[in-house]
Automatic annotation (TrEMBL):
It holds the Pfam family NAP. It comes from the Eukaryota. Belongs to the nucleosome assembly protein (NAP) family. GO terms for biological process: nucleosome assembly. This is Nucleosome assembly protein 1. Residues 182-213 are annotated as: Disordered.
Length: 213
């Protein structure tokens, strides 16, 4: 073991692997970055009331940030119109942070190539574009809160709020027990791996009208 290493090697990486919710979010290309994670801290604040998750990283080849943050604002007062429905503090918004990726190291973006066929001439061209890739680090770029409470984006934010709350309440406070496996929730033992089903869009062919010339 390297005598210059401080703490337990791969401590937080092991926790990510042990917690089903985090393991599902972490992709294979995220793993070398998560191995650089040195600590997760919770900072509480009062105005507005809420908390911030701080992810502290060692210097690495992927980004220049030493700390990535995710801030959650919480509602602590009952609604004036429906005071009896108040069930305690709840998260109502969140804000991520900008990740300063080093050149060619952004794991949240992937480049795809598509064939486009011209309608009249029949010629084919290759178009390259960047699209979002699955990654744990999309966690730091949440969408804005929509006006429609029933929208798909709101559903994504609801899931995001649950993740933030879980990290604060269950992961940070029980990190050592989760690392050893003693503090795992029963649900984490009940998950089974399933193969993802998806369509390969990278080799699709599109027709292009004359208007694109």
């Amino acid at each position: 073991m390297d005598p210059n290493v401080k703490g337990i090697p791969d401590f937080w990486y092991t926790i990510f692997k042990n917690v089903a919710m985090l393991s599902e979010m972490m992709q294979e290309h995220d793993e070398p970055i998560i191995k650089c994670l040195q600590d997760i801290r919770v900072q509480m604040h009062e105005d507005p009331f809420g908390f911030t998750l701080e992810f502290h990283f060692a210097p690495n080849e992927f980004f220049t940030n030493t700390i990535l943050t995710k801030e959650y604002s919480m509602k602590c007062k009952p609604d004036d119109d429906n005071p009896l429905e108040f069930e305690g503090p709840e998260i109502y918004s969140c804000k991520g942070c900008e990740i300063n990726w080093k050149k060619g190291k952004n794991v949240t973006v992937k480049t795809i190539k598509k064939k486009q066929k011209h309608k009249s001439r029949g010629s084919v061209r290759i178009v390259t574009k960047s699209v979002q890739a699955d990654s744990f680090f999309n966690f730091f770029s949440p969408p804005a809160v929509p006006e429609d409470p029933d929208s798909d984006i709101q559903n994504l934010l609801t899931a995001d709020f649950e993740i933030g709350h879980y990290i604060r309440e269950r992961v940070v406070s029980r990190a050592v027990l989760i690392y050893t496996g003693e503090g795992l929730d029963d649900d984490d033992d009940d998950y089974e791996e399933e193969e993802d089903s998806y369509s390969d869009e990278d080799s699709g062919t599109e027709e292009v009208s004359d208007a694109e010339d």
